[in-house]
Write a structure and sequence with these properties.
- The protein has 293 residues and is of the alpha+beta class.
- The protein is built from eleven helices and six strands.
- It has helices at 15-24, 26-29, 43-47, 54-68, 73-79, 102-108, 142-169, 175-184, 205-211, 247-275, 282-292, and strands spanning 31-41, 84-90, 115-119, 124-135, 219-223, 229-233.
- The strands form two sheets. A four-stranded antiparallel β-sheet has the order 2-1-4-3. It has a two-stranded antiparallel ribbon with strand order 5-6.
- The longest helix is centred in the C-terminal third of the chain and has 29 residues, at 247-275.
- The radius of gyration is 33 Å and the shape is flat.
Amino acid sequence: IKLENVYKKKENFSNEEIVTFIDKNKEGLKEKSINFTYAKITPKNLIGINEFNNLFFEKIDEIENEISNQVNIENLLKKYDLKSFKKENFKLNNITDENNIFYKKIYKNAEINKIELLDENDFYILYEITKVEEKLPNINDENFNLKVKNMLFNKTKFEFNNNLIKNINDEKFTQSDFEKLANTSLSEIENIEISSINDTAKFSIEGVKFLYTLSKNDFALVGDKDKNIYLIKITNIYGTDISKNSDNFSLYKKQTNIKIIESINNSYNIFLNNKYKVKVNDQTLERVKNYFQ
């Protein structure tokens, strides 16, 4: 059963559920907004030519020194004749212009009244953050409302999956529960066959490997490549005899022999270690190593 069809849909959460969730998670849901002033510095507006020459970088060094000496941004803008811009109540989701992607860097460095010079390779940004505010958005804000619904969906999805796994592990989940879940959610029970441990047509490789650890009539949760979760039941397990003349028989025989040898060696090593105190002569070991190199 594909559980995506079982989970409660985002659009089905009531206003009461949304309000309750917001009330319980106020601090975590607060969003930061900032006000800042900035100026874009290029060779053209700083030294009058489109060239990153020594004079330009000398001027940049001057500006950095003046910032260190706590010269305010108004004086810097006036001294270097820079045009400034202001952004108010800026949030991360306000970035719409790729040319202003540096807004994100400014936002992440939100410290009140701090003047900084940001190197953006093709230009510099001189900026000052003038206000930082954290507050709970209005519930009627479309983006915020959608964010809360997504969080509610993920929360209920996690709780549902967790409860299923617990009941399966406690052997409290039955065939009738399986069928009831399918009927109440109008989900189809899909029958599939997995041909080998490398058959990833339906589930992820991790999911298939997990299925191969289960027994007949076992229930479990597995995922596919797109991270969809499925509730499954193993209805049958088939085995195929391998012909002694096939290539696979020779391969499996070789692999089995290797494992048997490894197992015997490991058992013998454990026996020796338990019976005798073994001391390794490092110099002798090194000579043996060199001999075989």
